[in-house]
Design a protein that fits this description.
By secondary structure, this protein is mainly alpha-helical. The chain is built from 4 helices and 2 strands, in the order ααββαα. It has a two-stranded antiparallel sheet with strand order 1-2. The chain is elongated and about 80 Å long.
Length: about 130
């Protein structure tokens, strides 16, 4: 009887206060820390601008929409926290996500490289 009463009372708690949910979150957090560290070791720079500091591991498809992809390498990419994560990953709104973030990041990175080459060429021809 106590078990039924306990389960009934727990069912009224907000999800984040339920004991099973808390345990699952703790277990998930450990797995996430490991996957995040492995990802950053393989991809140590922002995939947009090339920065190597203040990095975040971005979920292409958010965990809230695709929890089964949370720890899947193909759903992760390295972005610098500011500004690339906010701009490219979320279109300036954390309630949004950019399913084409990889394509956009690659395009921007390529354009940045071309711009640098153009600027270097311009400097050498004007000197």
């Amino acid at each position: 009887m106590f078990t039924k009463l306990r389960d009934y009372l727990v069912s009224w708690l907000p999800l984040w206060l339920r004991p099973r949910y808390i345990l699952e979150q703790r277990q998930r957090a450990g797995a996430w820390r490991r996957v995040r560290a492995e990802h950053l070791a393989k991809h140590p720079e922002c995939e947009v601008c090339g920065r190597t500091n203040n990095l975040t591991v971005h979920h292409v498809f958010p965990v809230s929409l695709a929890p089964e992809l949370e720890l899947v390498e193909s759903n992760l990419m390295t972005l610098c926290d500011t500004p690339c994560h906010f701009m490219f990953g979320h279109f300036f709104n954390y309630h949004c996500y950019n399913k084409n973030v990889r394509k956009l990041a690659a395009l921007f990175r390529r354009e940045m490289r071309n711009h640098r080459r153009c600027a270097q060429h311009h400097r050498t021809t004007t000197d």
